[in-house]
Amino acid sequence: MTKDIATPIRTKEIMEKHGLTFKKSLGQNFLIDPNILRNITAYAGLTKKSAAIEIGPGIGALTEHLARTAGEVLAFEIDQRLLPVLEDTLSPYDNVNIIHSDVLKADVAELIRKELSGYSDLMVVANLPYYVTTPIILKLLLEDLPLRGLVVMLQKEVAERITAKPGTKSYGSLSIVIQYYTEAEMVMTVPKSVFMPQPNVDSAVIRMIRRKVPPVNVISEEFFFEVARSSFAQRRKTLLNNLQAHLPKGKEKKEAILGALHKAGIEPGRRGETLTIEEFGRLSDALYEEFGPSSEGK
Ligand code: SAM
Questions:
Q1: Each residue of 113-130: pLDDT tens digit?
Q2: Which terminus of the chain faces fewer neighbouring Cβ atoms within 10 Å, N or C?
Q3: 123 lines ligand 1 (CB under 6 A)
Q4: Which of 12, 41, 127 for mutating ligand 1's site (highest number of atoms within 8 Å of CB)?
Q5: What is the pTM of this model?
Q6: CATH class of domain segment(s) 221-295
Q7: What DSSP designation does 130 have?
Q8: Superfamily (CATH H level) for 8-210
Q9: Is residue 172 in contact with ligand 1, taking CB distance under 6 Å?
Q10: Does residue 195 have its Cβ closer than 6 Å to ligand 1?
């Protein structure tokens, strides 16, 4: 086996050899601890029959662990300067395909069809660039890609929000959207010392496994997410006040909101943060008739 990229000495050597500097604006905090990388890779449960999709390979620290464990790695890197570096550092591996692209603009579904058609087990595994963690995760989940799941490193505070349970400070619309699509758990917290350069925030790894069936059946997913967002618009406010202020035409329809809350068996004085996903589902369906898209002109 070749020497790990992810040690402080080798990372420095690679950066110097290629005359590279870290770009803070692209969230470039590279991992320099092989143990953390082994753990991240293990949490993804990869075999040679799996393909790994990586966002932001950097200089290849995680990529080489994925290449050793999975059948194939497809990695998206936005920074052109890193392409010759990756060609160099990953030269021992013939199963890595680097796509030079902003993952937010890439047609990931098409690339999966073209490049990974032989694989039925697909996992996203990444140490995400922290300035865009949420948009990247939401894109990968909402585009309905054929993924088993995602194992990603991100800011601890965002990891807490994604995995939060009802009644906690971190619980909000992000918890609901992600837990609607996946079973999400925090599997590891990670000290700043395993990065070069060290980030300002604490980090964590979460594992999200796509659900085969959603935890609640709703008439409209889009409307369900809108109700969840509206319910948390101002956390101190009650459900009734938030829904009145933030649902379209909510102001004119206090009675309708009260009726829907009653039908869903939810006290109007409760706060959004106390509702389970199932309760949000019931509430969303009860509100849909009055406030959903087909209620135009009512
Ligand atoms: N995987 C490497 C590691 O663990 O050492 C690097 C991780 S570093 C936190 C994030 C990487 O994402 C950087 O290489 C950065 O250039 C890349 N990146 C930032 N924004 C991106 C985007 N929108 N699309 C693809 N890659 C991006």
A1: 999 999 999 999 999 999
A2: N
A3: no
A4: 127
A5: 0.95
A6: mainly alpha
A7: G
A8: Vaccinia Virus protein VP39 (3.40.50.150)
A9: no
A10: no
